[in-house]
Amino acid sequence: MSTFAVTTASLAPRTRLRLTTRGRRVLTLLAALPAAVALAAAIVGGGAALASRDAGAPAGTFETVTVQPGDTLWAIAEGVAPGSDPRDVVDAIVRLNALGSVGIVAGQELAIPAAYSSAR
């Protein structure tokens, strides 16, 4: 009886991956695409996440109030400028304080534009 030993290495032909010039260019493009997209997004965004270069509001153009428990921007706006539209006053307060939302917390100091400030 003859023993016939076959190895798997002898059955599978050895192939070597060969990329053409065109294939290398395509592979390079695919590898660089995420970086190009990220760079384009940063350029289009214009650095919006960077801090503003504005020096801020000049002194004397605003007064500050301390938020009391239960206060809302709407209530503060009605209190400091009863003769004005509260929507305009809230918008001015949000812009002056660079608030991300209209949520405020007790103890927070808010700048009130001088155009609206009065004894609260």
List the helices and strands and how they pair.
Elements: H1 8-11, H2 21-45, E1 62-66, H3 73-80, H4 86-97, E2 109-113
Antiparallel strand pairs: 1-2
Give an account of the 3D structure.
With 120 residues, this protein is mainly alpha-helical. Helices cover 41% and strands 8% of the residues. The protein is built from four helices and two strands, in the order ααβααβ. The chain has helices at residues 8-11, 21-45, 73-80, 86-97, and strands spanning 62-66, 109-113. It has a two-stranded antiparallel sheet with strand order 1-2. Helix 3 packs across helix 4 (86-97). It is rod-shaped, with a radius of gyration of 33 Å. The N and C termini lie far apart (109 Å).
Tell me the fraction of residues in β-strands, as a range: 5-15%
The structure class reads mainly alpha
Instruction: From the alpha carbons, calculate the radius of gyration and give it in angstroms.
Output: 33 Å
Global geometry: rod-shaped
Which parts are unreliable, with pLDDT below 50 for 5 consecutive residues or more?
none
Number of continuous helical runs = 4
Order of helices and strands: HHEHHE
* Helix content, binned percent: 40-55%
Identify the quaternary structure here: single chain
Determine the N-to-C terminus distance.
Answer: 109 Å
Number of strands: 2
* Strand numbers in spatial order across the main sheet: 1-2
Average predicted local confidence, pLDDT: 80
Largest sheet: 2 strands, antiparallel
